[in-house]
Amino acid sequence: MGCGEDGAAGSGRAAPRRRLRRVRPPGHGRDGTKDTGAAMTVIKPHASHWGYFDAVVEDGRLVGVRPFARDPFPGTLIESMPDVVHAACRIDRPYVRRGWLRGERRGAPRGSDPFVPLSWDRVTRLLAEETRRVRAEHGPSAIYGGSYGWSSAGRFHHAKTQLQRFLGLGGGFTSSVTSYSYATGQTLMPHVLGTNEVVLGRVTDWAAIAANARLMLCFGGLAAKNGLISNGGGGAHEYLPLMRRAAAAGVRFVGISPCRGDMEAELGAEWVPIRPGTDAAMMLAMAHAILAAGKEDREFLATRCVGWERLRAYVAGEADGVAKTPEWAEPITGVPAATIRRLALECAAKPTMLTAAWSLQRADYGEQPWWMLVALAAMLGTIGRPGQGVAFGYGSINGMGTPRRELPAVSMPPVRNAGLHIPVARITEMLERPGGTLEYNGRTITLPDIRIIWWAGGNPFHHHQDLNRFLRAWSRAETIVAQEPWWTPLARHADIVLPATTTLERNDIASSSRDRFVRAMHQAIPPQGEARNDFDMLADVADALGYRDRFTEQRDEGAWLRHLYERWRQACARMGFEAPDFERFWAEGHVEVPPPEPEEAYTQFAEFAADPAGHPLDTPSGKVELFSETIAAMGYADCPGHPVWIAPREWLGAQAAAAYPLHLLSDQPATRLHGQLDPGRVAAADKIQGRQPIRMHPEDAAARGLREGEVVRVFNARGACLAGLRLDPGLLRGVAAMATGAWFDPLEPGVPGSLCVHGNPNVLTPDIGTSRLGQGPSAQSCLVQVERWEGPLPPVKVHLPPPVAEEETLP
Ligand SMILES: Nc1nc2c(c(=O)[nH]1)N[C@H]1C(S)=C(S)[C@@H](COP(=O)(O)OP(=O)(O)OC[C@H]3O[C@@H](n4cnc5c(=O)[nH]c(N)nc54)[C@H](O)[C@@H]3O)O[C@H]1N2
Ligand SMILES: Nc1nc2c(c(=O)[nH]1)N[C@H]1C(S)=C(S)[C@@H](COP(=O)(O)OP(=O)(O)OC[C@H]3O[C@@H](n4cnc5c(=O)[nH]c(N)nc54)[C@H](O)[C@@H]3O)O[C@H]1N2
Ligand SMILES: [Mo]
């Protein structure tokens, strides 16, 4: 028997008792509470982006978690699960902003009104009426359902997918393309290497690197914290074990980064501090040094690349009179010319793997360092050589380069949507300039006039840049709908707030193509308060609009899970892997796909390198494009036809550095996934007086009279936030680092420009597309100043529910 019977259709409530496995009550729970022996303890297999685990449940409450037994390196983030699942900031029932009910819509401030509780029936009717009205009056493009965000690990209850199915089947919507993670690289690489696989797919694996490479140059490092996360859930955190094995096998690691901590100590790496945003200059200088020594692989450049002559002339300075020598790069990058030259010649002398973190392209002109890194690998002739060449993101997420069999992941069928697609990070511009145009990757997009913004499974008040500007643009919408389990800043800035279940409150399947385990996620606790599954709330609105059956395909949760699993099982069978049937999978809690044998180590582009005519790349020339006629024809000065050095708008060499002399990096948090788990114990333990830590070099702090543990104000012309000071001698001087994810908590809600008292760095970051090619976010190009916070310390209130009005105050 499967999970088909686990919930009544459309409710997803209460797992049947017979499925609960009784275990002997342990003496102590994982959270340290003593067991009285009276409570019944139930263990359920479950999963999250931060790892697979077993949920420990007593009396309908999640009381602890135990890491998945097969995970070699589980990490601690799962420990925050009980705190967040039962947090005070869970949304207990549906709410509507009072001003919205009173007709204060387009242009009304968001984030300051009290919320009025309403019944599910009433909000369902309101949503159907409003969707019907806007579609009829303004057409489908007036609904923005791009809804970017990570949602949770389960593939059926994936909130964004459910929302986009609902909007797509209902007549279409304006959607988004690309991702905040690697928008720029994702748009660029098909022009250069003919594929995105080098950014987000199957790259040369660690087994091949360990066996063949002797040097690995890591721009942006291989930060240990980033390996805590796998999109879709991770059964095996192999990130650190795999790189440690490569070090033990004799690979020498070099971390080129403003931050020493980006290389795990155990790798014994050399640290080369570099100014943020200047990697393209260093790479060009390495190219110059290789060229000067005559070490470039002329055969590879002639037979497997196009455009070498154009790039060579630029490197040599024939094109612009500036030779890109190591001496030229030294004052730009802060890296001594001798170091640049030494590393370049070492690359030419040893089997070398080149990599860059995804962060490098989330910066002004972020196309350039990535394109130039490909050009370096082409000069070395290593693309497609066993365990060598170039790929992006080995240090960005668990699973990149993990040896694996090429099999699909369990997934929902794709969403059909005939509507517009806007580059995801250009949302503010879209809202600001209806009817205006936006250039993107050779196309001109006319921006729609958005009336409804509908979000599920993401948090733009976490992920977007320049939040004060964003808040003004956001308030132009007539109606903003948010589906959320928690009162996140997204929910607080919405008009109609729909409480969603967390994964623990429903059945699902976790799966990622980068992980070899597929995991059954058993419902562990009943829905909290009036929370409902995203699927069920949308099915009811679809019902009110007359298309429930098309939306549900007449399947309930259980039927969908069987259907998705069976589709996956059949796809695997076609590729030679026999997965167990659904019943066995569900009872055992996971399926393991056996890892490949060591002799099956994978090198990307090997066939192309061996036979470029027989296995051409999917570029216009079939070769690596060091000069792209396609890109050159777009005529973008901010992304010309070959890689170049363009000084970022904000960097340590800029004029603006006089007023705002510190370069702020906003990196991924070690204590949570983005804004998720922020109310949990792991994130709380890291904060300083309840504020997000900002790391600074001790001398930069001393120059401002600042001490470890103090609360500081971080500011620039775009905004200001509070933070807690942490000293870090492993930072380049002039660089400060503040992880993302502390929930935006404005001192005066609804007022753009208000101080964020909690420490969300996105009140400071600029919102400018990387270039007209990638139009990606450029959060890492950000200058700030830091000073002591002298005033009384305002409380952090964002982890408590916002003000709620009585139902009777309804007009
Ligand atoms: N300054 C700066 N900004 C950045 C970055 C940076 O490096 N610097 N990085 C960027 C990157 S790479 C990314 S990927 C983005 C991440 O941005 P997001 O993906 O938007 O961040 P999350 O906090 O993961 O948002 C997911 C939301 O979904 C909600 N959620 C989870 N499960 C469910 C569910 O079942 N149903 C519903 N309805 N909701 C659910 C969670 O509560 C959470 O609020 O941030 C970007 N922003
Ligand atoms: N624990 C945890 N892990 C995560 C996530 C999370 O939220 N929490 N988020 C996941 C997601 S969605 C993504 S997209 C990935 C992102 O993966 P990345 O983009 O690789 O992660 P970041 O932490 O933003 O950046 C990595 C390092 O790059 C360095 N860096 C920044 N700018 C520059 C530069 O200009 N030059 C050089 N050489 N180095 C620079 C910084 O020191 C930073 O520590 O992380 C994933 N992993
Ligand atoms: Mo990301």
UniProtKB/TrEMBL annotation:
Keywords: Metal-binding, Molybdenum, Oxidoreductase. Residues 662-782 form the Molybdopterin dinucleotide-binding domain. Residues 1-10 have a biased composition (Gly residues). One of its GO terms (biological process) is anaerobic respiration. InterPro entries: Asp_de-COase-like_dom_sf, CT_DMSOR/BSOR/TMAOR, Molybdopterin_N, MoPterin_dinucl-bd_dom, Mopterin_OxRdtase, Prok_Mopterin_Oxidored. GO terms for cellular component: outer membrane-bounded periplasmic space. Residues 1-38 are annotated as: Disordered. One of its GO terms (molecular function) is molybdenum ion binding. Its cofactor is Mo-bis(molybdopterin guanine dinucleotide). Residues 90-543 form the Molybdopterin oxidoreductase domain. Residues 15-27 have a biased composition (Basic residues). CDD domains: MopB_CT_DMSOR-BSOR-TMAOR (cd02793). Residues 46-86 form the Molybdopterin oxidoreductase N-terminal domain. PANTHER family: TRIMETHYLAMINE-N-OXIDE REDUCTASE, TRIMETHYLAMINE-N-OXIDE REDUCTASE 2. Belongs to the prokaryotic molybdopterin-containing oxidoreductase family. This is Biotin transporter BioY. It comes from Caldovatus sediminis. The lineage of its organism: Bacteria, Pseudomonadati, Pseudomonadota, Alphaproteobacteria, Acetobacterales. The gene is bisC.
